[in-house]
Amino acid sequence: MHFLRVLLATSAILIAILVVAVVPTSTAQKLKDAQPDLAYFEPELPHQLGRRTDVEVPAYDVVPARVRSESATYDLVQNQFSFFGAPGSGPLIHGRQDVLANSELIRRFAVQDMELIVAASIAHQASDIKDRPFGADALETFVLENVKPDASVGIAQLRPSEVVYWAPELVGADLLDPEVAVRIMTAKLEKAERTIDRTYPDVNVTDRAMLLALVQNDSSEIAMHDTIDAFFVTANGDWQTLLASDQAKSRGWTKQLRLVLVQVDWLVSEGWSKPAGLDRDRWAQIAFPRPNLDVDG
Q1: Does residue 143 belong to any structural domain of this protein?
Q2: Could you read off the pLDDT of 216-239 as tens digits, one per residue?
Q3: Of 21, 87, 174, 226, which residue is the least packed, with the fewest Cβ within 10 Å?
């Protein structure tokens, strides 16, 4: 069995390398410029043993032209990766396929107003091309068992050490099991939502959703509180101030907002309900700013 897992992991790596190798050089360069590896570190937390790499792009053309043109970066993200992430038969970037396959689980465990952000977080996290090419678990299993015992794995990219913070009853459960992953991601985001609403009850729906888009990538309760307080206390509730900070840059918060937003857009196009009061255009203007552009509303 061990030999088979190693063989499967090696095969997945070779296939991923082969696919990337046949992409035209110009496309590969744009891909590199648009989406560098997003390493997420929390040096103050000793259990952080690895990094999370985020590669995800929308594969649809449903956003109105006025909104799409608000940022060339949005268009570049959309156009460069749509081929690799399009739901269908065996996409290299597998996040959306995972959401489609597990939509009933998401709707079962997440309350209605949380369904969209939970699904977007999973679509984003499950699209780690480095660790989950074609959505295969073989490489992650090999790394977890032989290289990094606290590596993030599964469709929610969870670490074994973080489960105790969000769903202690699931400590020791198989994080590669989609139901376990959905339950823990839901618990993480619901705990963050309760913390925000209890501590900052006047927060609006859009700011709350954007904060959850950051928290979904946190691996501890300390990190969750740090993210929330950075917005409300350090940045005094101002996104431009927050995203210009060294903390935001080191933790890749702008990219997190972008990558979750494109998943939100896709999910809404697929019929998922958007929470009342969520201002998608404001989120886009903050995550994909375009200088000197006046956007109505």
Answers
A1: yes
A2: 999 999 999 999 999 999 999 999
A3: 21
